[in-house]
Protein 1
Amino acid sequence: MASLRQLRAEAAECTRCDLYRDATQTVFGEGPVPARLVLIGEQPGDREDREGHPFVGPAGHLLDRALDAAGVDRTTVYVTNAVKHFKWKRGTGKVRLHQKPNREEVRACTPWWEAELAAVSPELVVLLGATAAQAVLGPQVRVTRDRGVVMEHDDRDYATLVTVHPSAVLRTRPPERDVAFDALVRDLEVAARLLA
């Protein structure tokens, strides 16, 4: 736990890429240590950037519902992001619009999530969306093709499972949104069964 506290403090001072300049703060991972299950998303959103905690905005609330529906207790899960600063552009008024991090920005944060995984020692890492999946597994990963399947790795102490990011479900129009939510729950149920 002390090492994770130290990592969090060091990440708060990170200037490895330019995202720190416009972000309110570094948003580091949170949850129990050790944790059998880690969830990695893309980056903090507007609300996460303002509050300093991962998955507390609309996507986080949808993720909480999906975990509950899959029978996963959120308090037992460590949650983090592949990128620790919010990348955004100005919308109308005070609105800050999400921008996808580029390859260099994702690469700059790699040591942070790698250190988090080493400290947390998960059995399974669920990768939420393409940015997280490609950050951890490489550019060949495709969410639509690879989702919902537990992958074992010779070079890692943990298995991985790829699924969609909750924000992708939120962007889906009703009634397709219910179908997308149910598919996310099914993927999380695979994780729950593996850890049961």
Protein 2
Amino acid sequence: MAELNEQVLRYQATGQGLEELLSLLSARVYAYPRLRGSRCEDDSGEFYLLCYPRLVRTLRRFREQGKPFEWYLQSVLRWQYLAFVRARRRRERQWASGSLAAFWEPPPLEAEPALEPPSLSRQAEGLFRLEAGGGAVRRGERTRLLAWTLKQVRMLSEAELRELTELARVPLELLQQASARLRQGLLPHERRLELLAGRRTRTYASLCLLEQELGREAEPGRREALARRVQKARRALCRSQRRIAAVRLAPSNREIAAALGLPKGTVDTALYSLRRRQQAGAAVA
């Protein structure tokens, strides 16, 4: 023990003897998990890979204050081993949670396939007043049709765009340019939705891990701390859900008016009258 202490002090003073010290300490680091009761050879190897890059820093930080270097080394290895065990347990819990049904099992199949919703062009034919012969909407309905179309621009296909253009009797380029402009404006909202969805998934995974750990914990103080973390994770999950629900995925009336070159009040009035018409139709049905 005294010889090891002298070697460390000599290295700190002269910078010589580092290779001998690292060779001596490497064997002790590798054997440390066995001294703590580990029976797995992989633990020794992983612990060695964790601690070896930090041995030089350990040698430089040692200060002789009545305690030999052997005592300081055991203290450092103890704390490193506790951190190693915690990280290993967390990794094992993550692997265990990866097999949860919530992440992997597909939803149950429906007894009967759901009917596909009617296309936008068919919805428009049932919602707007057509001219005699049914070839296009009446002149006063065009603004309502255009505003209604662009309000659903995210789900609008090219074929539906062409059909709605024929109903409104407007140039196809007008709707193409307007829809492209509105979709470009919705990109930041879609990126935010992806970010929030990823955050919600990570929060849910953390909640699953905490609930599993709480179910295995027996020490009262630790259970209380875990219960608080579970409640905090649940609140975070609820916040993520609320933020996802608040993301706007449809263009605003002002954006639609700017894309069509119309006053905002005109678009407001057109969409308001359509809502009243839909409500009246639903009440009759």
